[in-house]
Amino acid sequence: MFSKVQFRLQFLILLWGFTGLFGKLVTISALPMVWYRMLIAAIAVFIYIKWKKDSILVSKKHLFQLLGIGIIVGLHWFFFYESIKVSNVAIALSTLSLGALFTSIIEPIIFKRKVVLSEIILATIVSGCVILIFQASPEYKLGIIYGAICSFLSALFSVLNSTFKESVKPTTITFYEMIGGFIMMNFLMLIFQPETITEVLNVGWSNFIWLALLGVVFTAFAQIEFVNLYKYFTPYTILLNVNLEPIYGIILASLVFGESEMMKPVFYIATAIMILSIIVNGIFKNARQKTLN
User: Fold this and answer.
1) Structural domain boundaries in the chain
2) Which keywords does UniProt give here (predicted)?
3) Alpha-carbon gap, residue 91 to 80, rounded angstroms
4) DSSP 68-81
5) Could you tell me if 243 and 275 are in contact, meaning their C-beta atoms sit under 8 angstroms apart?
6) Fewer CB near the last or first residue (10 Å), C or N of the chain?
7) Is 180 within 8 Å of 42 (Cβ atoms)?
């Protein structure tokens, strides 16, 4: 039986599954898209904090740490939407499953604990699935590379975020991370893609409505809930469950966009193995917990 917090985790992953669709629904390029996403999310979280009459004050150390993690979050989203723009939603989402492998390596380093063999085995299985997808869809090579970078950044900021679960409120964490990412997007825009400034200024109402929905519901709310769930789950468990995001997202993308999201049979076989890895991880976790108790 699923507990309440497990349902919360699955609902969060379902929301993330929707975010891939915005990569096609929003017609501007990836950089201004993330620029708007982080700006709108920061404003939404700030309004919520003021409504709750909470404080946004943090120590100077935490401020710079959160802004730094926000830069990683911003780059993660940038590569995610770049992956969608050069391939499709299915490819971008499927490569996110590499996060389990990256987390199984990063988490022991950050928390100075031993590497768990079962985590490495399961994460390797997930990585093998991504390799199968790569071999079956060489035309999406650049999208898979961007997706892999996105996945590494996702694992990195997930582990780093978990270090704040007791010291800083989730809303405060989300607010400063959105600010940090927004600053980074401005830097990238001015230095590397100044032509995208025109897209920011001429975003259009249709795009802006999609971006507002993305920023408020699928970013501000989702990020706060994401950080909040670290009170109940380890980064590895969350990242391994995120392997369900491609399943949710691919189904949704197929319903909305039709044939453009259809993939070869090996793709669906690989994603099925990813689901199995989550089930196996749950069995291992429960058995280990019972042994400890």
Assistant:
1) 4-292
2) Membrane, Transmembrane, Transmembrane helix
3) 10
4) HHHHHHHHHHHHHH
5) yes
6) N
7) no
